[in-house]
């Protein structure tokens, strides 16, 4: 085991891990190995550090160990509080991303910086913003103000909740989980999990659900929708993926993180003729911008920029020795990058006031001067080309796929098979027909991160293949999307993995069997799709033959996503157990109890083959219930 | 002799024993003191070949560390623990290599578990929240 820490199904990753090893550079796999054993108390969620009487740990393993914290908090209270705080942190990260996008829209100032008027008008209509007599910038500003209001409004509920099916909205109201203002829901979790507040694990989870819903149907959805307004709604396009997209002869710039405002500006700057000329003067053939993690997803979907790699590949990109600059903003950026970058010529550039890294160069980004700053950063990268130190090694592994399946793009694909004489176009009817007839058994979302507890990419890919075989269409986002495109599952060729029904659907619609729907905030696109299908069928989301899985998840954001999916009625399989296993009650509530309340629930299953079987069983069960 | 038995089924890998050990050997008997004085723990919870194990001197019957020391700096005391004569020790590290239990770490001089002989009970066992370390007098 010690000799082969890097457990992955991705060839490029393996090769670069070996290079890192030979150059004595520690990467995520080495650190994970050195961390063993990991503390069982933390793993089970049984350690409480919420007040300074602690840390308190519940000892279940021996009879005479403490069974309550110093304040008397039980294992149920402690695990549920820890879980709720993780959900709140996840909801905060997503939502704050959404807020930044809304601020960017507010400061857009110029019509040319709002690339998608159609969507602007659509959302304006939805939110009841009058457009008559106003110019685009004015409408955008009003919309941004309304969106920013969602974070702190005093009364009322989130506007995007109205997108859910009627039954769901009613259920949320009855249960008292319909979120009001995003910031407030997150604050309330922090308040109620403070020492000496809420001790009832069901009530704590109820509060966590409100925070999670304020992410999925709030912050994330604002992030996605307003990004579309600013930068365009993603439409299908071909891109290349994996570390093989780096080019030896070019200035390589990796943009990494989450917020598209930075990466879009970098892409624009990299096409500046002046900078291209400068690159040529430095001996490079051009400027090659590639994306990593969710930023990779964002600019691949909108600009066709190659997807360099997922969360676990960020250090390896630098290890190629071919990266002039890695430009990062927020979330999922390993602090280790600064150390790895020091071994090469790579400049690590942080840009967000919310995420500085010791050892990195900090060039603060701001939306008003975006292009100016982006030009400066790209210039720095270009001037760094001649400083390459070691021999460059770029693995030749890359694959191709069709990505960019936003909700709007899926509707457009469905319109291909809509008989426009008999039925209106622009609906989900063809999809519903395919599901009803059984050609498609159902749909599943594979989302989430990378985690050393699971073999890298293997779980995403195995699960996807197992589902395709069973005629279950797959949608994916985040690092799951990176895994799938690298494995060739977004290629036309991937039809060979499909059952007959799904293969036919893919052929008729001219789509790959695994649909790339975006970054992790874009899971809100999946919510919209589910919602539209449910509304069309006149049922609730929990009645649909659908499921979700996060086979390699690791972040707090993933816990928020998981919970808002469950609270929206989805059956969610987690490949890694959340830190609640120390309490049978809390674990039981999340994996069984919630279903009778919300129609969705968690399932913990680390084996992707088993997970696929469970999803298939769930899908068939829902089909039976629908009588289809 | 004081034996410390490690029940791996009870161990949760929290490493409280390691912290307690380092603290016990600091001047102020505190964690902060241990960090300041760069005290290393004389017990380490590790995963080797996928198995959990505690690296700690077992007070074995024929200590290899004593055998290999070229200057005779290591010897066994009456209570069974290994003592290091820091005047003789040249910090060569042969004892560390020789110990089959990985019990010795060179932190300037070799550090070996002394069973907290100056205290009433080994701190590691006292600190273990799951009672995975059991002290037995033999």
Automatic annotation (TrEMBL), chain A:
Write one Pfam family the protein is assigned to: Prismane
PANTHER family membership? CARBON MONOXIDE DEHYDROGENASE, HYDROXYLAMINE REDUCTASE
Q: Which reaction does it catalyse?
A: CO + 2 oxidized [2Fe-2S]-[ferredoxin] + H2O = 2 reduced [2Fe-2S]-[ferredoxin] + CO2 + 2 H(+)
Q: Which residues bind [4Fe-4S] cluster 2?
A: 48, 51, 56, 71
- For the keyword Iron, the answer is yes
Q: What is this protein called?
A: Carbon monoxide dehydrogenase
Q: Would I find Signal among this entry's keywords? A: no
Cofactor(s), names only, from the UniProt record = [4Fe-4S] cluster
Which InterPro entries would you find in this protein's record? CO_DH_a-bundle, CODH, HCP/CODH, Prismane-like_a/b-sand, Prismane-like_sf
Positions binding [Ni-4Fe-4S] cluster in this chain are: 258, 294, 332, 449, 479, 520
- GO molecular function terms listed in the Swiss-Prot or TrEMBL record: 4 iron, 4 sulfur cluster binding; anaerobic carbon-monoxide dehydrogenase activity; hydroxylamine reductase activity; nickel cation binding; peroxidase activity
Any single GO BP term: generation of precursor metabolites and energy
Q: Which residues bind [4Fe-4S] cluster 1?
A: 39, 47
Q: Which UniProt keywords apply?
A: 4Fe-4S, Iron, Iron-sulfur, Metal-binding, Nickel, Oxidoreductase
User: What EC numbers are recorded for this enzyme?
Assistant: 1.2.7.4
UniProtKB/TrEMBL annotation, chain B:
In terms of InterPro entries, this protein maps to:
4Fe4S_Fe-S-bd, 4Fe4S_Fe_S_CS, RnfB_subfamily
Q: GO molecular function, one example?
A: metal ion binding
Gene3D superfamilies per record: 3.30.70.20
UniProt keyword annotations, A-Z: 4Fe-4S, Electron transport, Iron, Iron-sulfur, Metal-binding, Transport
4Fe-4S ferredoxin-type domain: residues covered: 2-30, 48-79, 80-109
Pfam families per UniProt: Fer4_11, Fer4_4
This chain belongs to the protein called Carbon-monoxide dehydrogenase iron sulfur subunit
